[in-house]
Design goal:
- By secondary structure, the protein is mostly helical.
- The protein has one domain: Helicase, Ruva Protein, domain 3 (Orthogonal Bundle).
- It is built from 7 helices and 2 strands, in the order H-H-H-H-H-E-E-H-H.
- A hairpin with a 2-residue loop joins strand 1 and strand 2.
């Protein structure tokens, strides 16, 4: 019985990480989710500036570029595909978001979105910005 449960959990986990390339989140404007990131951070005593710093660190956008995309209501797919330079240290981001290990997500765009979700979660949990941004010398 235990073996069957493990196999079922494994199949469910695998199904969750294999997102279709036309997932609904890809077409949602980034600007419609951004206020939720801010609210989550502020509810825990963090700031919009810290959220912006995380987004800019991950994507390579400047704050001005981020503001432009928010104003244009760019969808998630475009926001991430047009990112100037995805941070190479993003692969150090590990953990679970919505019950799925971010490092196990196969669909590249979904993985990038979940990396951002994970970083915002870490901010809300009180981690230092140095650890969130995987600064040199940290084991995050």
């Amino acid at each position: 019985m235990r073996r069957l449960q493990t196999d079922k959990q494994s199949r469910e986990s695998q199904a969750i990480t294999e997102y279709p390339t036309t997932h609904r989140i890809y077409t949602i404007p980034f600007a419609s989710v951004y206020p939720h990131y801010i609210a989550k951070a502020e509810k825990k005593g963090r700031t919009r500036g810290e959220v912006d710093q995380i987004i800019c660190w991950l994507t390579g956008y400047t704050r001005r570029g981020l503001e432009a995309h928010l104003k244009k209501k760019t969808d998630f797919g475009t926001f991430f595909s047009k990112a100037p330079r995805m941070n190479p240290s993003r692969f150090l981001i590990k953990g679970v978001v919505c019950g799925v290990r971010v490092e196990d997500i196969r669909e590249p765009l979904m993985r990038e979105i979940r990396y951002l979700d994970k970083l915002i979660d870490e901010l809300a949990k009180g981690r230092t910005m140095k650890k969130i941004l995987r600064k040199e010398g940290d084991s995050a």
